[in-house]
């Protein structure tokens, strides 16, 4: 019997067995109850696709049944058109509608050879290792080949690497390759870490338009506007010959009216680069005039430069400062609500309990209180960016169990207990002038008083 006759005989035998099997099943079905086998769900092999791709990958590596060779630089990668087209819209379009559909060797211009090899491995294996060494070539290659899941993996990797020293570079990379989610994450990170970012070389290398874009943001997180002013001056002085002409356009975005009068007079007005710059002098005069206005007049003369920055997006924290009388302690803790855990922060400069707390310009003011022996007038400021404490001018009166509130960017300290009697006096702290001023007293002495701000007024509750 020759080979052809053998195959014909085998086919005939298999067909006969198939007919018998079908007949037996039909008889079996007739003997069953009303429930038909067709109601059962189809059998599904969960590992079929994976096994098929594993086999195709073995064939590819052995160069079996491959019908295309991809070329990128000096790298050549063999593959199967059907597999490539099923996983990549780029290859699907190429192999179903372009002249390359009939080509056996295709050169891909502008593609890194090593990245191509890694991506073709991914197409067959569904696995890829993104590293610091390959991410900058993988992302543009994945963009070109329209492998969106690899794109996403690269962006997630870069997002996890964000640091004040590299965030501006990663932002530029995300912008270049149209990674909008990564770009948004970079912008938020830069705004939240502005002070640290401006201390790195990437900031000093930015072009003027990007510096202007950054410092114009309402969402910058800075302890005070001084950091923005100093960042601009450092950037200009980095290349004074070419950047001095940009000073006026940049200073337009620095909110000089939010600086203290002392800083305006001693630092800004005395800056040599500003003295001969007419636009900068106009901005300085505007700031000086703003400080001369009464609190109720300032709203009438509002400009973009008088608007306080309102950083958003930082994780919410609950701060606990000092102890409870009579136990005065230096301990400071915060509850990270996002991670649900307590963190130990820098200790108070001195023991404290029953103090008032206020949040102003991104810093926490601890006002008055009891040190275990005496009621105190002292005020300490906590900087959450640097995890450091500093001192502010003391109040005029000793106060514990006082009420504290912030109104019109000033701190109000109300009532309290001085060690012998409850107080009806009140005072106000101006962070720009860095001084406390007595204001009208309450009609009633109040200790352990609550203070709230409503409709532009302080309301006292006890």
TrEMBL record:
UniProt keyword list = Actin-binding, Kelch repeat, Repeat
Q: Which residues cross the membrane?
A: none
State the Gene3D superfamilies in the record: 1.25.40.420, Kelch-type beta propeller (2.120.10.80), Potassium Channel Kv1.1, Chain A (3.30.710.10)
State the PROSITE patterns in the record.
Answer: BTB (PS50097)
InterPro entries reported for this sequence: BACK (IPR011705), BTB/POZ_dom (IPR000210), Kelch-typ_b-propeller (IPR015915), Kelch_1 (IPR006652), SKP1/BTB/POZ_sf (IPR011333)
Identify the SUPFAM superfamilies for this entry.
Answer: Kelch motif, POZ domain
* Domain of life from the UniProt record: Eukaryota
GO terms for MF: actin binding
Q: Record's SMART domains? A: BACK, BTB, Kelch
Give every BTB domain span: 66-132
Pfam families assigned to the protein according to its UniProt record, in alphabetical order: BACK (PF07707), BTB (PF00651), Kelch_1 (PF01344)
Database matches in PANTHER family: KELCH PROTEIN (PTHR24412), RING CANAL KELCH PROTEIN (PTHR24412:SF466)
What protein is this chain from? BTB domain-containing protein
This chain's source organism reads Amblyomma americanum
